[in-house]
Amino acid sequence: MSEQPDAAGLAALSICEALLLALHDRDLLPEREIIGILRDAAETHENTKEPELERQVHAAAADLINGILQGGILLRRTKL
User: If DSSP states are collapsed to H, E and C, what string results for 15-74?
Assistant: First the structure.
């Protein structure tokens, strides 16, 4: 059972990534807006006021999002 939250999180991340990429590919959201969405999401996790244990989870989430931003996946991706 302990693997389910990880699987749910991974599924959610994959779905969100696919949606953002589709919005970009179809010229519905410019890259700067997508980057802004990702930055806002990371900042929300970084600035949480939750108890320590939950802050660790939020920090890990922020690290994942910031990794996506630093990796420049959207910047290097070509349109299909």
Answer: HHHHHHHHHHHCCCCCHHHHHHHHHHHHHHHHCCCCCHHHHHHHHHHHHHHHHHHHHCHH
